[in-house]
Design goal:
The chain is built from three helices and four strands; from the N terminus they run E-H-E-E-H-H-E.
Length: 95
């Protein structure tokens, strides 16, 4: 069964307020079986819109990624990100 991924491209506008998002989303991601593959780090924006931060989380399958992202519990936490950063998030099924 293919793995699932959540990929995010983020530019944080308020780093202090954004810290709460990281503290609150990490346990939810872990509980859903998510594992960070990329969480920040140096990046080279070779093409397309530029974001300052990039994340990739691997999940056991695509359904697990969706089961984390769409429920209200995560969406409550995601509001913190939306209020304090510009982001593009995509859920992807692996090969």
């Amino acid at each position: 069964m293919p793995k699932g991924y959540i990929i995010g491209h983020i530019t944080v506008n308020d780093p202090e307020a954004y810290k709460e998002y990281i503290v609150r989303d990490t346990p939810l991601i872990e509980a859903a079986g998510g594992k960070p593959l990329v969480r920040g780090g140096e990046a080279d924006s070779a093409e397309g819109p530029e974001f300052a931060r990039h994340v990739i989380f691997e999940f056991p399958d695509f359904e697990s990624a969706k089961a984390l992202y769409y429920p209200e519990e995560y969406q409550d936490v995601a509001r913190i990100r939306r209020e304090n950063a510009t982001s593009m998030i995509v859920l992807v099924e692996g090969v």
